[in-house]
Amino acid sequence: MLRLFTFKDYLNQEYRRIVFPLLLDLHFYENSILNEYFQIEEHLDKSDFIVIPVDINYFFRKRKKKVLYDMIQVGLDTNKPVWVFTGGDYGKTLNLPVHTFRLGGFDSELSPNSYIVPALIQDPYKTVLKDRPFSTIQKRVKPSMGFVGHAGGYKKFFTEFFSYSTENIRSIALGRLDHDFQWFFPSTYRRGKTLNHLRESNSLDTDFILRNRYRAGAKNEEVRAATEREFFTNIFQNLYTFCMRGTGNFSIRLYETLACGRIPVIVQTNGRFPLPWLKWEDHCVITSSERIEQDLLEFHQKLSEDELVQFQNRNRKFWQKYLTREGFFIEIHNHLIKRGRND
Q: CB under 8 Å to 51, separation ≥6 — which residues?
């Protein structure tokens, strides 16, 4: 068991939405399984590490950087590892010897002590697809690839560029850049361009629903529920799902596809996978924009029908074991114990 010390003044309803994900289970939900691996320790000297209780972006937005740095210094002064969480599309890098948990980033720029947190979604077979128990898809001659989501043409390119420029100029001018700077990536345009090219292929069965607004512009619960069901039904009905990064350098659709027991086709953009010591190539088709069709066809043709069925079962179990909040932090615990808890 690992014992963590944190600053309990932040463990209340006011900060619940931005709390470090592990503390959500240990404090608010009192998860009995995770309590076998982690325990909140009242006494600093008896703890194995220190957790900054809320998303560090909060301290930059509220101009409370000194509060954050003072908490981190407690760990540095006592030679204890410090864990921080930075949310949002971009995240925030601190030039300090801390362990950073974040949603995305660029692998070549992240330190060895940066951990990618998966999108912690609910099990779709217990929510949106509860009337459709998990089952596998049989192999077809042509690989079937699905996608439902935000994708567009040149109009979207300029809209995204305007939004990106306005936000960054305002943040920099006001001294409130609470996230890492990233160069412009027109994700909606890039998705649209790639998907429209794949639609022209005679070798693929494509099942694409391209929306010109996020979640089809849903403004009420009924429409949101309908679009979410359409989204997951598309994943469920296709063996493969196209996954490309969004505004941040990560894809939530990757985790949604694995949760459904299907095979993600990942367009790699120098991202880092969660728990990178696991063999992600055993669960995804990892490719580039230029080689999607070729790599997918080669992958599909080399596997037998039984192997593709096993692949789907393995992906569903992979998500259940490692990519839920509970499973992710248990694996982090086991990894740290194996390496040495102060590593």
A: 4, 5, 6, 20, 22, 23, 82, 83
